[in-house]
Design a protein that fits this description.
Blueprint (H helix, E strand, L loop, with lengths): L2 H4 L12 H13 L4 H15 L11 H7 L3 H4 L7 H9 L1
Length: 92
């Protein structure tokens, strides 16, 4: 890695997902020896390298499409004020 690359600024990218999906994803990546951010960077690198998705995306079924169009409140997302509240939720 060059000094130029190391000095580049980074940015934050957030993704909304169901807590159970997040927990499962973290466990799967952990079993592979990866942090979620590392796995995402690998995904982005593959898209950049090939110019396409590393899998064939398909249209969602009717049930999924309806869910995706719901507001966050309708999806049942819960807001927390402290990150520690998320950790407590993972233990449940």
């Amino acid at each position: 890695m060059s000094i130029e690359t190391m000095n580049q600024q980074t940015t934050v990218f957030q993704v909304r997902m169901h807590p159970q999906e997040k927990q499962e994803m973290f466990a799967l990546f952990g079993a592979m020896g990866l942090k979620p951010s590392q796995a995402f960077k690998m995904f982005v690198s593959e898209v950049k390298r090939t110019g396409k998705m590393p899998f064939t995306p398909s249209l969602p079924n009717e049930k999924t499409a309806k869910f995706l169009n719901l507001s966050d409140e309708q999806k049942g997302y819960e807001r927390v004020t402290k990150a520690s509240d998320l950790i407590i939720d993972l233990d449940d």
